[in-house]
């Protein structure tokens, strides 16, 4: 069986605010893992994180903000806390 991976990316600017969010993660779609690729301000890759679907589902279903619960958006820091580093510069 082929695994399906959802890929998200985020570029970190020098003046970026804390609490950045990822784009929507749709639980009604078919995927097994999500990966977050982090880039510097010049879009050079820095690190890639990987999280299993179950970990993401649990994080999105916990009571909390409208963005998380209704729009399926996790903060970058939350994604990092439930994932593991699979590649780093």
Task: Give structural notes.
This protein is an alpha+beta fold. It has one domain. The protein has three helices and four strands; from the N terminus they run E-E-E-H-H-H-E. The mean pLDDT is 91.
Summarize it:
The chain is built from 3 helices and 4 strands.
Task: Identify low-pLDDT runs.
Answer: none
**Mean pLDDT across every amino acid position:** 91
What would you report as the Rg, rounded to the nearest angstrom? 13 Å
Distance N to C terminus: 30 Å
| Helical coverage, percent range | 10-25%
Enumerate how many helices there are, as a single number: 3
Large-scale geometry: globular
Residue fraction in strands: 25-35%
| Total beta-strand segments | 4
Spatially, the strands of the biggest sheet line up as 1-2-3-4
Order of helices and strands: EEEHHHE
Assign the structural class, choosing from mainly alpha, mainly beta, alpha/beta, alpha+beta, or little secondary structure: alpha+beta
* Number of domain units: 1
Q: Biggest β-sheet: count, sense, barrel?
A: 4 strands, mixed
